[in-house]
Structure formats: C-alpha cells, structure tokens
C-alpha cells in the first residue's frame, strides 16, 4: 500500500452486538496512522438516548451520567463521516465495527462509507501464527503494548493502532518469496486486508531458504564444544525459596555428580519439583553433560518448554539448547502441505495455510503444536500430518528438508531433549547415547511399558474397516472407483486387483475369528466380554491347522500395500496436473485414510 495512505483505526463501544437496529453506539474512537506513526486521534462518548445494560456499563467502565451529558450520534455523524474520508478503515474484527458504524450513519441520513478495510485479527493470525489467543487484550500482553482500559474504545483504538504498526513492520521483515505467495492467496481475507502484503520483502538468503513452494528458516547447526562455562544463579527478588525445593536442588545435584548415579525422588505437591531438578541439571549441562527429560503427556511436555525452561533461564541465564521430541503425527509433512497449496480451498482453510506458511519461515522443529490450532482447523491437518520417515518419497524436492529427517541433528546437538513416556518407551534408541535420563512422574511409566509389550489384533475392527472400504469403492449410488475409471484416473485392472485383495481380507479374517471362537470359546455367548488365557501350544496348533488362511491373508495384505503405492503415485501425478475435481480428490483421500487405518489394524498380523 502507498506510504502516504492514512489508516483510520476505529473502535466502537455499543449497547449490544446485534445489528438489528435496536442497539446504539456509546463511544466512538479513532486513531489516525500514517507512515507507521500516529498523527491524530478523535474520541467521544455518545448519548444513545436509551437505557444501557448494566453488563455493558460494568464491562466498559463508562458511567451512565457521563453518557447523559454526551452528544447524540446525529450531532457527531457529520464529523465522523468527514474524518474518515480518504482513509483506510482498520479495526480489530472489522466485520463488526465497520458494519455497525455504517448502519448508524444510514440511520441518521448519511450514506454508507465506501472505504478500503483491514482486519487486524486476520493479520495477527497470519503474522503471529503461534499465539494461543488473538483477543486484543491478550495480544497487548503478548506484544507488550500498554492497554490501560480494555473495553473502552479510546484505549482499544490506541492499542489496535500500535498493533497495526507492529504488523506492518513485521510484514516488511518477511522474505520477498513468502510475501509474493501470501499476496497470491490473499483473496481469502475480508475487505482489503490482503493488500498489506503488497510490499517488497527482504532477500536474506542467510536466514531463509526457498524449497519448492515453501520458504523455510535456514537452520545452522551449532558446532559442539567442550568448553566449560561458569554461569551464575540469579534469584529474582520475588522468588519464594522453599525449604523442600532447596533440599531437592542439593540431592539432585549430588546424584548428577556421581558416576552412574541412580536415584528416586518423591517430592510433595507445590514445592516446585520441576525447577528442583531442572536447575541442577542446567548447571551440569553448562559443563557439557547432556540430558533426556521424559514426562507423562504432550501437554506437560509443552509446559516444560514454554514455562519451566523460561523460568529456569530467568534464574540461570544460559544458552543451553533445548529440543522437544514427539511422535511423527505431531509434525508437518512439508511435501504434503505443499501439495495442498495446489488444491482449491475454502477461505478459512486458505487463511490457515497462510498462517502455516509464515510459521514455516520461523520454526526449527516443524512441531504443529507450536501453532496452537483448534479442533475446527483439524481437517487440513488430516492431509499434512507426518506419518514417519518411511512414508516419505526420496525423489521429492522436500525430502532433504523434512523436519523428521532433520530431527536427528537437533537431538545430537541438544543439551536437553524433552519427550514423553510413550515416545521414550518406543524410541529410546533415537534419543542418543551418553545422556542422563530424568523421568518425571516415573510411576506413570510402568503402564506404558506394559502396554508396549502387549500386541493386539482386533479382528472385528479389521472387518469393519474392510467393509467400509468395499462400500466406498463399489458404491452404485455415490461417487466410487467406477467414476475414477471413467475419468481415466484408474484402470479397470487396478480396480479389480485392489477389490480382490480387500475382499480376501474382508472374507478370510471373519473366518479366522469364527474358527477361534468355535475352538476356544464354545461354551460362552458372543455378546459377553471374555478374557481367556490360551496355552501357547494350543494357539500354535490352531495356527498350524489354519496356516493356509493366514498365508492367504498375508499375501492379500502385501499385494494391497504394493498396489496402493502405485495408485498413490497416480493420485499425486493427477493432483500435480490439476486433473482432480473435488469428488475424485475426496474419494482418493478417504480411501487412503481407510487403507492407513487397515494397515495399522493389521500391523500385528504375522
């Protein structure tokens, strides 16, 4: 946008949010911004000439007596209309402020404003993609913008104007390649919000690297050094020193200084247990010792990174490298994400894609949890979550930049690797050697270890999934694989092969189940839940008698996996060539998702 443009940052307080003609403005505020500086402002209370609900008065802090002395909107409308001419209208949730103001102007005889508009909510979501909340009050705290009177229009407008300036500064710091991509997608944004990306960005090849359609942060792995560092502990003035915590500091430190030291600590709730083991560990890490910390859940893992290590750094300022490691489903598959950029999306999904594009230029981990996205944003996640390194295509231009593949180097160079018990149990070899292991909430580790050593084969689940697959690909009513053949996306031969393989699984697995039931559960009802221990020799004998069925199912699984790989390549090729309409894309997508579920259900079929 042109530098000489004036941005009118507007905020309204009203008697209610419904735009049914019954509510009125009680405060109008506007801050004018030009060349990223505040140049003027206007603020006035407005007498609504009607009763104001108590909850509105309490929320805003506006007094009824002050409203009674204020001018009515009819007397202010001309001034407001004149002030806003030739400006760009900006608001935090512009859909409300702009529409409500126009409704009131029309009510008193003025024409609607016809201004370009910018929404700072959408811009904040895109340019600050890792925040948990985009409420104005929360943004002001996060971005350290003074907000004296939340829910008063003058204070809100001042904060929104400062937010706008931060957003405009942030835009200019983005790499040019990313800005061009955001520009091309900006039609999904409301009003003219997308025009803010019409600037020239930076060409910083040292900080960013262009990989296909994506702009990624260039990750330089620091060289390890054995140099010892003497850091000082600085207790904040408001830090409450607890006796039990101080004892824990001492005990953990002594254990860490032992050769092959092993110990258990039982700490009461509320003594600051986490800092109790983190601080002595950090002191040792500064001397070159490396750590793996495991806790119970992903949520606690995130808390360690976002809260506990931040507190640690305030007490013991350090440059220690901390990396969080989770299961593959928590990471983005950048190849899959890049492919979604070729597909037609609704406006909301495109906004989420823009947010992810900016995040990819910042993240070193590719951990989707950093985005703090909500359930409504998960449909896109189904397409872009990672399914492990083995699922990657080595021929892809994104292969060498895949976050799961780059993770090994992060683990190697980290002072602290933070993970959860489930990941620790299943992937301990990946976490490196010669590291000290700290297990937080160790009592929760036992059931996870026991669960790892159990193998389950749910024959009913296999039957249900294979039935669903057959219904989907054979349907005579809804869009099915017959339509894909007609569109030349699939051949008749390919269809017949996968149909035969799924039918084999669908028919033979229930036969195995029924034979198991007849041999071992003859005197019980199928409706009841049973747990029956079976002697190994008996189960081995059963498998030997029915070995030909096992082999048939195994062969069907292997053939299905092999043929699906060929079909998936055709799907990707058609996607790249823009030959897929929404129906064929959704059918392929749901088919591969069901096949993935079937593969997981059959993983213990040996």
UniProtKB/TrEMBL annotation:
Signal peptide: none annotated. InterPro entries: DEAD/DEAH_box_helicase_dom, DnaQ, Helic_SF1/SF2_ATP-bd_DinG/Rad3, P-loop_NTPase, Ribonucl_H, RNaseH-like_sf, RNaseH_sf. GO terms for cellular component: cytosol. One of its GO terms (biological process) is DNA replication proofreading. The keyword Nucleotidyltransferase applies. GO terms for molecular function: 3'-5' exonuclease activity; ATP binding; DNA binding; DNA-directed DNA polymerase activity; helicase activity. Keywords: ATP-binding, DNA replication, DNA-directed DNA polymerase, Exonuclease, Helicase, Hydrolase, Nuclease, Nucleotide-binding, Nucleotidyltransferase, Transferase. PROSITE patterns: HELICASE_ATP_BIND_2. Residues 231-506 form the Helicase ATP-binding domain. NCBIfam families: dnaq. This is DNA polymerase III polC-type.
